[in-house]
């Protein structure tokens, strides 16, 4: 049995943190933009149609997770993927999604429910931590 203090438990916690860091459509969109090379915040805001503060906050999350790095040049910061292996992970996820069909989308906890074209937040089970 795996207890909270074992190396296996620590590995599971790190894995959960990685997937939690990627569990946002905006962060995945930023990663998809960075596949094509370095981008500045202004490049990302234009490509994604998001506010500067929104993009900066998500970049900070990705940077804190060690998935994105920033390279300063003058007064600008150029962001890129820290590890190209991230794209292998996302490609594997795409394959898995193709295999599950609609099951993930219809998941009652984390699926994407669309009402009038808007995405709703995942439901929270009673007593679950956010």
The level of helicity is 40-55%
Overall SS class: alpha+beta
Give the count of helical stretches.
5
Mean pLDDT: 84
* Strands side by side in the biggest sheet: 1-2
Task: Give me a quick take on this structure.
This protein has about 130 residues and is α+β, with helices and mostly antiparallel strands.
Structure description:
There is one protein chain. The radius of gyration is 17 Å and the shape is globular. With 130 residues, it is an alpha+beta fold. The protein has five helices and four strands, in the order H-H-H-H-E-E-H-E-E. The protein has a two-stranded antiparallel sheet with strand order 1-2. Strands 3-4 form a two-stranded antiparallel ribbon. The longest helix is centred in the N-terminal third of the chain and has 16 residues. 48% of the residues lie in helices and 12% in strands.
Topology:
Layout (H helix, E strand, L loop, with lengths): L6 H16 L2 H10 L6 H8 L3 H13 L3 E6 L2 E6 L3 H16 L13 E2 L2 E2 L11
Antiparallel strand pairs: 1-2, 3-4
